[in-house]
Amino acid sequence: QVQLVESGGGLVQAGGSLTLSCATSGRTFSVYVMGWFRQAPGKEREFVAAITGTGSPYSAASVKGRFTISRDNAKNTVYLQMNSLKPEDTAIYYCAAGSRLSNSKYDYFDWGQGTQVTVSS
Fold first, then answer.
1. What is the mean pLDDT of residues 33-43?
2. Model confidence band, residue 20 (pLDDT cutoffs 50, 70, 90)
3. Closest Cα partner for 6 from 83, 91, 87, 89?
C-alpha cells in the first residue's frame, strides 16, 4: 500500500499557475505509475495526467500544453505544474498510484485525500 499526500492547491485567477505535489511513502515509488485525476462537483472523477516510473508522461487532451506532470524518484514525489488555468479546471485534484499507464481510475489502487483547486474568472 502506498500512502499519498497532496499539497499545493488553492485559489488562483484565470490565467494563473499552480503546482501540485504528491508525496508518497514506501521504498518502491519508482516502480509505480503515478496519476493525477480531478473531480468537480456533480461530475465523475476524470483523468488529468500520468507518468511512468521512468518519466514518460501521458496527458488528457483537455490539459495538454497547459499542465505538465513530472516526478522525482529520489524524493518519492510527483508534481503537476498547471499553467493558463481556466475556471473549468476548478476541482478537487487527486494523485494516485497504479501498475500501468492508464487514463482509467480503475487501474489505480491507492489514492490521496485530494487538494482543492479553485480558478476564479
1. 97
2. very high
3. 91
